[in-house]
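Action item from last week, closing it out:
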Amino acid sequence: MSARPLSSAAQPLDLSRWRRAPTWAIATGVVLAGAGALINLKQFGYSWLLAFMFFLSLTLGALFLVLMHHLFDAGWSVPIRRSCEHLACLASPGLAVFFIPIALLAARLYPWMGPAQQAAPPGARPG
């Protein structure tokens, strides 16, 4: 038996004050990312690329697992497959939006995409 008496009218947990916490966390992240882009744009691009590739690998790995589960058609893997399906659904619309900064900063991130490299004749190295 427990030391606390069991009451039939237990009060539900009140989490209403934490309802706006995700919104504040997102807003703080956007402000900090903007500050990082203003301080050093090239480093911001590398950091964004690293985070993008991390989440892309998670979603594509989940998609691969879904394909394998459907290929082998095992019944035991249904709960695992359902969670992997939900994770793989983030790849298309969500990560497409997060690719935009990488596309805009591509010339700064990859030296071979710069204008000097594009203007050089094939086989020549710019000085």
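Closing note: The CA atoms of residues 25 and 31 lie 10 Å apart.
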